[in-house]
# Entry
Amino acid sequence: MAREYELKPAPSQASVDTGDASSHLNRRQFLRYGFNTAAGVLTASLGVLGFASILLPPGGSSGGDLAVKFWAKGREDSAWYGAQHLQPMTKDSFVKEAASSSTGTSGASGVWNGVPVVVNYVAHSKNAGTPESNGKARFQFTEGIDETGKYVGHFDDLAEQDPRLMPSEDLVMVFGRCTHLCCIPGWQLVSNSFTEDSWTPGGGDDGGTKMFCICHSSRFDPTVLEMNTNRNRSNGSTFKYAGIRRAGGPAPVGLPIIPISLNGDVIEGLPDYLDWYTYCD
Ligand code: FES
# Structure
């Protein structure tokens, strides 16, 4: 019988709906969900340094670097970007990887300015004019509701104020800490040999192109961009943000976007919305 790995239940949420992800995973499912030991290493370093202390504007007095780098430590042999660990991310690498995906998507874990990020490419420009029923992924821009079901606003409202929040060259980058308990979990990403390569519209909890938090099974849809709200953990203030939608699991809301731009073919993050990443520290 295949070895099984036990997922930790969310505190006080042991009975929370975890969809088709049971509390035990066999090895194949474990690998499919993209857990990597490097996540633990990164978590430990963040714990030592303190999140706020490393979230400094790149290019400023910290001597930071705007470029987003691949992060594949521990997955050098399994991730499609395994040979590019700590090399700058380029759009071309995502486009090439997406060419082997039936949905036209690709994703990778990364590090930007010392914080964990996830970058997803969606062949939106190519697919947006085609029928949704063909399973070709495209971005959807929607309204958002908070964890109580209250209407928050529409992604377009924020994007009109700052167009840089729109996907750049069909790429979108999000902060890589789960909104549930701030895991840096090693995300399920398309496409790789362990992940179902399928897409459905609407941001629901079906389709395979989800980011999956291994810690307590939260799912996020990187193709659905919405407005939502969260809380600064240090001072309790609330803020609205542009993010990707939570599709299921105990996470209360989706993950915030980090706007990007391309410098030639290199993906660079823009440090304009640091407040959005304060829900963990
Ligand atoms: S930290 Fe609990 S689901 Fe991600």
